[in-house]
């Protein structure tokens, strides 16, 4: 089992920055992938950024150049640095983890609210 806890959300003005953190209950090196998703009211949950165990990253087109996903293996934590925030970025942001090859279950955090004012 993997427990994920997100933090760092809040209210920010357009153009501002936030850094989200996702702390895992086990070494993130043992996981196949980590990622950030978001869901706005009335919309489907969408991938924002992902990182696989080898370090490759991918981003939604809407956040490329503004968001950066990174990890600190010693702290079992994945980060999402969000710069140049727009009102359209307002959503609940969720951390997702995929277990190791021998147990590839998906785990979700409870989410953290990000609100960007105009």
Structure write-up:
With 118 residues, the chain is an all-beta fold. 0% of the residues lie in helices and 52% in strands. It contains no helices and eleven strands. The protein has strands at residues 4-7, 10-13, 18-24, 33-39, 46-52, 57-59, 67-72, 77-82, 91-98, 106-108, 112-117. Strands 2, 4, 5, 6, 9, 10 and 11 form a seven-stranded mixed sheet that branches. It has a four-stranded antiparallel sheet with strand order 1-3-8-7, with no helix packed on it. It is globular and about 45 Å long. The termini are far apart.
Q: Roughly what percent helix? A: under 10%
Strand content: over 45%
Low-confidence stretches: none
Major sheet attributes: 7 strands, mixed
Number of helices: 0
Question: Alpha-carbon distance between the termini?
Answer: 40 Å
Radius of gyration: 14 Å
Mean pLDDT: 95
String of helices and strands:
EEEEEEEEEEE
Shape: globular
How many DSSP-defined strands? 11
Structure class: mainly beta
Topology:
Elements (H helix, E strand, L loop, with lengths): L3 E4 L2 E4 L4 E7 L8 E7 L6 E7 L4 E3 L7 E6 L4 E6 L8 E8 L7 E3 L3 E6 L1
């Amino acid at each position: 089992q993997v427990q994920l806890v997100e933090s760092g959300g809040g209210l920010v003005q357009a153009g501002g920055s936030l850094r989200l953190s996702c702390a895992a209950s086990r070494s993130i090196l043992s996981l196949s992938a980590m990622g950030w998703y978001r869901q706005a009211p009335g919309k489907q949950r969408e991938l924002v950024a992902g990182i696989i165990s080898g370090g490759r990253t991918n981003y939604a087109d809407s956040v490329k150049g503004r968001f950066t996903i990174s990890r600190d293996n010693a702290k079992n934590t994945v980060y999402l640095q969000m710069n140049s925030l727009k009102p359209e970025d307002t959503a609940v942001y969720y951390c997702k983890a995929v277990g190791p090859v021998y147990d590839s279950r998906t785990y979700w955090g409870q989410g953290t609210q990000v609100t960007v004012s105009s």
